[in-house]
Amino acid sequence: MKLKSSVIAISIILICYGITHAWGFWGHQHINNKAVFTLPKSMFGFFKTNIGFITEHAVDPDKRRYADPEEAPRHFIDIDRYGEHPFDSLPRTWKEAVAKIGEDTLKAHGIVPYHIPKMLYRLTQAFKDKDKFKILKYAAELGHYVGDAHVPLHCTRNYNGQLTGQHGIHGFWESRIPETYGDDYDYFVGRAHYIKDPITYTWNIIKESYAAHDSVLQIERELNAKTAADRKFAFEERGSTVVKVYSKDYTAEYNQLLNGMVERRMRQATIAVGSFWYTAWVNAGMPEINDPEVIAITETFQTEMDSINNIYTNRKRMGSGAGHED
Ligand SMILES: [Zn+2]
Question: What are the backbone angles phi and psi of residue 157, rounded to the nearest 5°?
């Protein structure tokens, strides 16, 4: 009986590790951090001085999912809920999509490609107002959603392999692999560029992610079929807890079969994040913001973050594994 309950506890830990955060906290923070280095001189000083904020707050939207029911759908889109040719039928703008499909259905299946242009607009406004705190806050959050859009399993209803017996694959792809190999990735991704048509650009990211989701699942399915169960998982200590994780060998084999896909998507996410920031600044009329000044966190923001962090920590302690929808 005792053994049985500890097995259950360990499985829960695997599931939580598996599906709670897109790119994991590690991935999101690295993407935002490295995106700063794509910026032109006229923006770089300000972003570099505040890189600590941009990095740390890359994960606020994931934390906020527990405190704000509106948050969850902003991180994904289940493209395959929309028929055989979803990209032909899905309207590209929020207004048209609401008119055709309805807000409830859209939110149930995720709205990341509609939320990115909205965040770009907010960031543009913050640049226009030269509101330096809001620039940092919206830049950090926009970076998060752009990062999520690059994850193949954020674009399918089978987001954690739950429909194909591959439970845990979400975190395997987006957390375990980058956390294992990400320090060796090449983050020289070039210079941020101006995005002429942010809506089309966003949908192209979704198309690429969706196109890759089949490989993400199929490659693991094939690897699983030829791997003995006791080679697939291992136990690792995380602080005072022992967690069940995909073994080092299994992770290495999967990563090799993916042929650099995780690194490629992370690099593409990094340049896209820098380009969205740059585009907001250009669209705002290229305001002078380059003074190397550390921006203080506002009191309102600190209070909001304290509350979000409290709820988040409690939910994590209770072992609530948030799925792709919640
Ligand atoms: Zn997310």
Answer: -70, -25
